[in-house]
Amino acid sequence: MKFIVILFSLSGLCFATERPNLDIKIQSSFICENGKSLSGPEFKKFCKKRNDVLRVLYANLIPGNKILYKELMQESGKLGSVYDWCTKEVNDQRVGPSCVLRVSKNSSLSSENLSVSFLDRKNFIRVNIGSLQRGSRYTSSLVEWGSGSNVSSQLFEINNP
Asked: Domains in the chain: how many in total?
């Protein structure tokens, strides 16, 4: 009786791992315009220092456990932050990840994608919302759009005074 032993080497194989969906939530957000806070006195100092001429949304986002702890990348391991979630490639065969803030009026089915920048290369975003109608409420989410994965954060509301 002969036994045939076949060894499979897993080195070099790439297993598809999807970018986590709905694993980001908002901690806080506020709006600045012309160096003034439109969201309350607690943001007055920050807005004065930033001195944004345009209407800008700032949001502090919280990454969930899948982003913080799950192994998604072959070389560098975990993503660790919302910035990494938006910009680093994971083992899902998609390239060129980047994020937008997708906003829609609560009563509308259409949406608009707004450019996002990170102030700290971690979890704090800046978005020019000058194109949004004043005095309106919007439903929004951070969406990884560049690679085509279209996964997103949890929904949050923007009240544009």
From this structure: 1
Rounded to 5°, angle at Cα 156 from 153 and 159: 145
Do the Cβ atoms of 111 and 158 come closer than 8 Å? no
Using one digit for the tens of pLDDT, what is the confidence trace for 91-126?
Answer: 888 999 999 999 999 777 899 999 999 999 999 999
Q: Give the C-alpha separation, 47 to 39, whole Å.
A: 10
**Closest C-alpha to 106, from 59, 61, 145, 159:** 159
Cα–Cα distance, 112 to 119 (Å, whole number): 22
C-alpha dihedral sign at 47, 53, 57, 59 = negative
Calpha distance 8→31 (Å, rounded): 56
Residue at 60 is within a domain: yes
Q: List 63's β-bridge partners, or say none.
A: 24
Residue 60: give its domain's CATH number: 2.60.40
Q: Which domain holds residue 43?
A: 24-160
Q: Is 91 a member of any domain?
A: yes
In a domain, 123, yes or no: yes
118-147 pLDDT, tens digit per residue, is 999 999 999 999 999 999 999 999 999 999
Residue 133 lies in a domain: yes
